[in-house]
Amino acid sequence: MNKLYIGNVSEEASAEDLETIFEQWKIPHSGPFLVKTGYAFVDCPDEKIAMKAIDILSGKVDLHGKLLEVEHSVPKRQRSCKLQIRNIPPHMQWEVLDGMLAQYGTVENCEQVNTDTDTAVVNVRYGAKDQARQAMEKLNGFLMENFALKVSYIPDEMATADAPPLGGGRRGFVPRGPPRSGSPGMGARPKLQSEVPLRILVPTQFVGAIIGKEGATIRNITKQTHSKIDIHRKENAGAAEKPITVHSTPEGCSNACRTIMEIMQKEALDTKFTEEIPLKILAHNNFVGRLIGKEGRNLKKIEVDTETKITISPLQDLTLYNPERTITVKGSIEACSRAEEEVMKKVRESYENDVAAMNLQSNLIPGLNLNALGLFPGGAPGMGPSMGHNVPPPGAQGGYSFGGQGQPESETVHLFIPALAVGAIIGKQGQHIKQLSRYAGASIKISADEVSVVDANQVAPPEGMDTKQRMVIIAGPPEAQFKAQGRIFGKLKEENFFGPKEEVKLEAHIKVPSFAAGRVIGKGGKTVNELQNLTSAEVVVPRDQTPDENDQVIVKITGHFYASQLAQRKIQEILSQVRRQQQPKPSPRGEGPPLPRPSRK
Fold it and tell me: Bias regions of kind Pro residues — which residues (predicted)?
């Protein structure tokens, strides 16, 4: 991809004009400029220089009153399924990019391109030509965090290999090309903050020393550790501590952290600061439970192995807008450095497991704004409104209820958990369920009475099976449902209510209008069978149900978390279609629905 296409070239422009521009911007080229009417071509020594020319010149440099458009030169026969997307925000999260690309079709491969620019560049291969064309039309110029994406075709060698023979061969037969590379889960993934950034808190009085005169010290740290370091000086004005975020490889983060600790220790000696300066690491609450481990075993092992003392801030310190816990490490700089490596190793493992699990199903779950979930570092923490305590409604005496006011597109799901697990979900003095409600942005109640839940196709439960269940009533929009239910599934696994090799499978109930139940089932059970095949969840609409006072019936969904979520979203999609069809069509003049005709006597 060394050959460049230069578009929007003025008729007055000459090869010498273009050569002067390339020399002015110090962009070498390996051949003469071939100038046509309105466009030109030129070869660069390598792909990196070609990318540099695109980034520096395209849409930025004027020649005879016209802004040049520079992109890879791609023959028509190779304009197929491969695109290059440039000017991606540097710290855009992988799952956000992945979800955005998946809107237009099947992404077979996505690889990051190494460039000298601050923004990121990826090469993407779609499963079909029309998918790539749609992605290019929709994403080119699309604004993300004030960065306008730039999308262009790049040569698709497989398009040539897959083309039908010009002569001979059976009609309609297309010979197979080389095997496709980079299938999902196997190919290289862009490292758009794929490693969790290291976030630490430092005393405000040491921030100046870390930055150095005219920023010299922080630039030196950045250069030596190959990292990007953000010092959030303006956050929490007047606070005793300031957060620092380090974006790099795990090794780069650890090296930067050690250097910062050494600078603080030296500054403390110079200023006769006598208090101990512990290392304070910030980590999203989602990962802290797995860092601590059952009965604190993981954390205790890190303390013993690194000869440090580690404490973690209590849950009560969390707020809707601050989902991070403070991990305080005390010991020598050497010991704290080793502890940082071990702590962040656990946090990154948790993050990668969550991303892997999410990417398995995220593209299949419609209606979810993954960026709003706040599951990953850098995402917007806590998307719901500020939550207060609600008084349990009539009939829920003895049940815990925490949550907020109703939100648009709110859904209600009844999730059934083992009765013995209620204490773990509620937590001491209701702290866990309160925190869960605030984190998810959902209203969460637990029924006071036990219920028996058995397989819809069984007359009696299997012998020895514990069928005592309690119903968790979750109300909130799709993102809130995803977060609340996901945390409940995770908590049951963490607290060993399911075996180490046993998947957590729970039953969930959704109420649907009785007239829509047939749409969920489909003709001859076709829709419900397709739902089960697609989602791997068991979906049952029990026969002979009597609709409740709101003329609603129950749909039962049983499966692991992602299967259950996918089934719930698909059912809600069906209900949305039914609701749209139920809406009266506006009259041509927009005067509202027609009046009923008078009956003839």
Answer: 585-601
Select from 451, 436, 425 the least CA-distant residue to 403.
436
Contacts of 459 (CB under 8 A, 6+ apart): none
Q: If you write DSSP's letter for every residue of 345-403 in order, what string do you get?
A: HHHHHHHHHHHHHHHHHGGG-TT--GGGG--STTS-S--SPPPEE-PPPTT-TT--EEE
Angle, nearest 10°, between helix axes 561-582 and 333-361? 50
Helix then strand then coil, % of the chain, to nearest 5: 40, 20, 40
H-helix or E-strand spanning residue 425: helix 422-426
Name the residue type at position 179.
P
* Pick from 60-74, 151-165, 557-571: least confident: 151-165
Taken in order 179, 185, 188, 189, is the CA torsion positive or negative? positive
- Give the H or E element holding residue 468: strand 468-476
Q: Rounded CA gap, 444 and 52, in Å? A: 53
Question: Smallest Cα–Cα separation from 69: which of 83, 55, 52, 85?
Answer: 55
**In contact, 70 and 27? CB cutoff 8 Å:** no
> Quick check: 41 pLDDT over 60?
yes
Are 197 and 231 spatial neighbours (Cβ–Cβ below 8 Å)?
no
Closest to 292 measured CA to CA, from 13, 1, 494, 16 = 494
- For the cut 90, the answer to whether the pLDDT of residue 265 exceeds it is yes
Tell whether the model's pLDDT for residue 600 goes beyond 60: no
Asked if 479 and 464 touch (Cβ cutoff 8 Å), the reply is no
Instruction: Check whether 467 has a pLDDT greater than 80.
Output: no
Q: What is the DSSP string of 564-596?
A: HHHHHHHHHHHHHHHHHHHSPPPPTTS--SPPP
Q: Please state, in angstroms and rounded to a whole number, the distance separating the CA atoms of residues 163 and 172.
A: 11
pTM over 0.70: no
Instruction: Output the 3-class SS for 224-240.
Output: HHCCEEEECCCCCCCCC
Confidence of residue 456 (pLDDT cuts 50, 70, 90): very low
Are 326 and 281 contacting, i.e. CB atoms less than 8 angstroms apart?
yes
**Nearest to 497, CA basis, from 425, 551, 569, 557:** 425
**Between the ranges 378-382, 383-387, 485-489, where is the mean pLDDT highest?**
485-489
Residue 433: Cβ within 10 Å count: 23
Question: 198: helix, coil or strand?
Answer: strand
- E strands in 62-119: 62-63, 66-67, 69-72, 82-88, 107-113
Conformation bin of residue 408: beta by default, left when phi > 0, alpha when psi is -120 to 50: beta
Beta carbons within 10 angstroms of residue 316's beta carbon: 9
Query: DSSP H helical segments within 31-170, as ranges?
Result: 47-57, 94-102, 129-139, 157-162
Helices 94-102 & 333-361, crossing angle to 10 degrees?
10
Which DSSP string corresponds to 116-136?
SSSSEEEEEEESSHHHHHHHH
Please report where in the chains the tokens 């003329």 appear, as a residue: 551
Counting residues of the chain whose pLDDT is more than 70, the rounded percentage is 74
Q: Is 74 exposed, middle or buried (0-12, 13-18, 19+ CB in 10 A)?
A: buried
411-418/468-476 β-pairing? antiparallel
Considering only residues 460 and 289, tell me which one the structure prediction assigns the higher pLDDT.
Answer: 289
Using the structure block, give the residue that is written with the tokens 């700089």.
333
DSSP, collapsed to helix, strand or coil, labels residue 110 as strand
Closest-CA residue to 424 (of 400, 443, 441): 400
